[in-house]
Automatic annotation (TrEMBL), chains A, B:
Any one of the GO BP annotations: glycine biosynthetic process, by transamination of glyoxylate
Protein name in UniProt: (S)-ureidoglycine-glyoxylate aminotransferase
Organism: Nocardioides marinus
Known EC number: 2.6.1.-
In-chain residues carrying the UniProt-annotated modification N6-(pyridoxal phosphate)lysine: 198
Enzyme kind, highest EC tier: transferase
Alphabetically ordered keywords of this record: Aminotransferase, Pyridoxal phosphate, Transferase
GO molecular function, one term: alanine-glyoxylate transaminase activity
Ranges for domain Aminotransferase class V: 37-347
């Protein structure tokens, strides 16, 4: 057997829109040795993980489990399991990840309608309500926090509209869960999914998901389509789920009381996902949200203290990420490279209409910390000064310190 | 921040058909801190991983990469990206995982034909050839090693048939890769996928996959179907790939020179997958296969030395797993429980027509070791004796020692 060492990765402080540095306890959990798929200790770990994520998602949903893939796998599992070809879907779009929901729903064969607002805003409830009444969708699919714009879509009103109009509601809470208020049951959300790599302080690769009774009924109702029935009229209800890997009917049977065999559990990711929830709940969900609020506010005031202009409707911003306009005359990518090469700090670029216009700076998960915020602001000050931007010495860290005072 | 400890899992020696214990170096790699998705060190790690898996798969294929999910995600990525609704597929079925290929191909909308043999046998080349000429499939999808029966399907002949007949060939090498000869290029295989949790000595959750030029051409040819084109006649060529997450056209663009954004990389699984290949190639692929052959032979002779009868066509058995008939009068599940509870050793149950009839015992990855083989045989002797089976004292370990002598 080899005893050669693993190649080491460089030390980085990841202050972009995610992924972020994983909490050390999560990394420790992911170095634990494996047990078998149906070992009693594995069953206990799965049940414990389900219970922990019920608390994280604020739900009593029995079917609260992990999809073995990145947050995008969780999104696709929800949509491919809920949607049948020809179903109408309404997507409130306020950034890149709304467009992703559109694309995935289209690939499921759905008829997708959108209600869009400019980047930097959120979608008003009445616009959603009008669209629901016009389109009569089977499902509203919404993003809570879209890192592309930093906006945090209010969901309580959309939940009310969906309940009143008899429409299913799916929410992608990847970027926001654990660092912003999220109420699966109180807001009437039928399915919500997330990832570990944002406020949950873990690596990408596991997608926590929760399914309420209305969603479970829809998904279970598709199970009667047996193997070999390839003659289905694919415009009818009861079509077979087009994926095996992301078939939530099977995944629920695997995680549930019956514990039927499906895929081979990604045990190391399960250990990581469990540790993420344990770290979060040991701190307390409210305390975690408050910590994200505090350090997000410090970063916001800090970048303003550096003279930078913040993008978008700050009243509706996620706690855990801020987008700042790149000052005139500054090469945004060169500045990011200087942050990385000279300080080991990553901040984010941006996409679509914001490409080249803003940097995105995150304060989330384990990195929602005072030292991480102040270090990032100090480094950014140095980089801006070197780029010729007139910066008040200590303007960023000073403004952040006032938030902490 | 919490400093509470992670719950520990019990120590287990996993000698079933997989998952098995991960190599310590792999676990160490998976506790490394993260870097950003587009960090130069991440790009280097991805390129290195691609190069390593080219050697593991024995291929020059540029597009050799990881799908972020379990081995089943790799299978589905291959089939959903290659197959269009109405395509004819031929699946040689000799166990449970052949049936899985059938099911996934059906969910892709393919017209699936099979050529089946009884469990414990492999499919003869001429049966495949006859079926290919009769069915004229677009794709032959075959399993190499099916752990449900322990059989290892010969593939060189099937590759020749596919090349001669102009048919694409996909192979699921999950259970066999690294412990049995596998030749992507020499055997004319267009796409092969695997997992880490068998002979590669890692945890489930990452699916190495390699795509040859004929497959790449098919998949790239589907990219022109742009978002929003929902009016395609889905019996025609050039339909949109039904999945976003498992769309190998996008995944190739993400891993390739263009490095276009797709999902957020499951970095910890990438570290693990890279370490698996490094461990394997540090030992040497030939040496690893020989090690699996040696310890598999020792286990085979060992169980025979205990008086157990081996299931199936031993000439066509995988090196890394053996199925043994449960002796008359022995409660198979009770014996497995005794192995686990009294000795911390997991051996496997079985499925389908073999359920309750055989145990499956693996010697793979890190656990293809002399001490693991002898310990398992000693424990099994004790459990059989306690169950009232007449066993020659030291019959198992003695026979295994002779293989090692």
């Amino acid at each position: 057997m080899t005893t050669a060492a693993n190649p080491q990765m460089p030390p980085r402080l990841l202050m972009g829109p995610g992924p972020i540095n994983a909490h050390p306890r999560v990394l420790q959990a992911m170095s634990m040795q494996l047990v078998g798929q149906f070992d009693p200790s594995m069953t206990a770990a799965m049940n414990e993980t389900m219970a922990l994520y019920r608390d994280v998602f604020r739900t009593d949903n029995e079917h609260t489990l992990l999809v073995d893939g990145t947050s995008r796998a969780g999104i696709e599992a929800a949509l491919v399991s809920l949607l049948e070809p020809g179903d109408r879907v309404l997507v409130p779009v306020f950034g890149r990840f709304g467009h992703l929901l559109v694309e995935i729903a289209e690939r499921c064969g759905a008829e997708v309608h959108t209600v869009e607002v400019p980047w930097g805003e959120v979608v008003p409830d009445d616009a959603v309500e009008d669209a629901v009444r016009r389109v009569r969708p089977r499902l509203v699919a919404a993003v809570q926090g879209d890192t592309s714009t930093t906006m945090c879509q209010p969901l309580a009103g959309i939940g009310e509209i969906c309940r009143r109009e008899g429409v299913l509601l799916y929410v992608d809470a990847t970027a926001s869960l654990g660092g912003n208020p999220f109420e699966t049951d109180a807001w009437g959300i039928d399915v919500a999914s997330a990832g570990l790599q944002k406020c949950l302080g873990g690596p990408s690769g596991s997608a926590p998901i929760t399914l309420g009774p209305r969603a479970v009924e829809v998904i279970e109702g598709r199970k009667h389509v047996e193997a070999g029935l390839r003659t289905d009229d694919d415009r009818s209800r009861g079509t077979r789920i087009a994926s095996n890997y992301l078939d939530l009917a099977q995944v629920m049977d695997y995680w549930g009381q019956r514990r039927l065999n499906h895929h081979t559990e990604a045990t190391t990711m399960l250990y990581g996902a469990r540790a993420c929830a344990q770290v979060l709940l040991d701190e307390g969900l409210e305390a975690s949200i408050e910590r994200h609020r505090l350090h997000g506010a410090a970063m916001l005031e800090g970048v303003r203290g550096l003279g930078l202009e913040v993008f978008g409707d700050v009243e509706h911003k996620m706690t855990n990420v801020v987008a700042v306009h790149i000052p005139d005359g500054v090469d945004g990518d060169a500045a990011r490279t200087a942050m990385l090469e000279d300080f080991g700090i990553e901040i984010g670029t941006s996409f679509g209409p914001l490409h080249g216009r803003v940097w995105r700076i995150g304060t989330m998960g384990w990195n929602a910390r005072r030292d991480a915020v102040l270090t990032t602001l100090a480094a950014l000050e140095a980089v801006l000064r070197a780029a010729g931007v007139p910066v008040t010495a200590g303007g960023g860290t000073g403004a952040a310190r006032e938030v902490y005072a």
